[in-house]
Amino acid sequence: MAFHSYISISELHPSFSHPKVFGVVIAKTDVRSFPNRKNPEIERFTFGFTIRDSPDFFINVSAWGNQAYITSLADNFRIGDCVTVENPLVSSKDPEKDKFCPATPSHYRLLVVEPHSQVLLCTDMDTVDGLLPLMHLPAKDSADFYSLGDIMANGQKLDGAVINILAAVKTISEAKQFTTSDGRRGQRMEVKLFDDSVSSFPLVCWDKESIQLLQTLVPREAVLFVADAKTSFDSFRGGMVATVNSRSVVTVNPDSREASLLFSYAKQMSESGALDHDEAADHPSVDSITDVYTVNQLKLKAKEQPDTFCGLTYSFISKLDLDSSVSRLIKTRCSKCKFQAAEDAQSCSNQLCPGREQPFSGAAAFDLLVDVSDHTGTLPACSLRGAAAEQTLGCSTDEFAGWSDDQRSALKWKFLLERCRLCLKICPSARTKSGIRTVILACSVADPGEVKQHMSAVLQQL
Ligand SMILES: [Zn+2]
């Protein structure tokens, strides 16, 4: 392909006839239809996308036509693909039409219409290699963003606001399909974000294109810069949510210092397992968990469905390493950002820590890995931490640190020999061999009558 015949987005002008531009697609909307004004029985179809060919320039393109033309055009490429746009109409921006599109530095917009214009996938590998790094440049100033803590602190003041957000991806739920009251089909997906100030914050997507983009991400291994996300107060949950809409541009793993610091933070939090233990927001109260499973039933259920779920099991703790050194059983974390720290740390080693300027304050907590078994199998390396561990063991970290080896051993055998009632949270995980991570939310020695009742129910199912 001869790219000297192409015009850069910065040089485009309405006086050009037959312009050709190329760029990487940084945003794209779903196909929509509208009744034709002159001929209401005929519907017109449209979708929009945004292409970027340099760090400083990107432009919105809208395509219009009949259903066959528009759907086949839209199916041909996705966000992240490189395309060439041939023979578009170059027109000045129109505030009415552009208010539903991403804000761009260009003064113009491109119109793609049948049969004059074409959008083709770019096949020149050198051009593609040159364009792909642009995918990692935010569509707004990379230093101009709200942290999740800023959003929470502002609360309802940000109801209806359009802001930029930088945060890491914690979980990605399945897209849910639905039909609206007027018969249109829709879908909704929720991503939970986190950063070092907030452990879980919802980002909602309604568009197939943005859902597809986010579904390709690996939770805990991606940082997002969402330019022009809409924030609103959700009265049903009683908290703030952010929404990706047709004006938003989502940049995955943005190329900025703040993003790379957040990426390191997310990686450390993920590897240490600290993300599995978030407070109330992420899992139901222990009392509401009533479904009883055998170990094998828990494993099967985790395979059948990818979402996190909770369940009750009457099982034995088959491995409980209370004889290890205290430093392996009790970990210190920064109270501001939960980053792991040495017991005698003078400062937090997380460069993004909101408390970096203040004297270090750390909190010690149990951090145990235990195996849970019954007659059907074993759940290895279940994590038992913090308050759940203190309640299970019946002692604080300070008390435990002062105990003799004999006292710890006695405590260990109390659990190893008894059947326990365990409330578990099962999270899918690509990192573990078994494909799941298990968090113990509560554990106590079970009442024998209760065990008998549940075991007979389980045996009847066999
Ligand atoms: Zn910290």
UniProtKB/TrEMBL annotation:
It holds the Pfam family OB_MEIOB_N. InterPro entries: MEIOB, NA-bd_OB-fold, OB_MEIOB_N. GO terms for molecular function: single-stranded DNA 3'-5' DNA exonuclease activity; single-stranded DNA binding. Keywords: DNA-binding, Meiosis. One of its GO terms (biological process) is resolution of meiotic recombination intermediates. Residues 4-140 form the MEIOB-like N-terminal domain. Signal peptide: none annotated. Belongs to the MEIOB family. PANTHER family: CELL DIVISION CONTROL PROTEIN 24 OB DOMAIN-CONTAINING PROTEIN-RELATED. This is MEIOB-like N-terminal domain-containing protein.
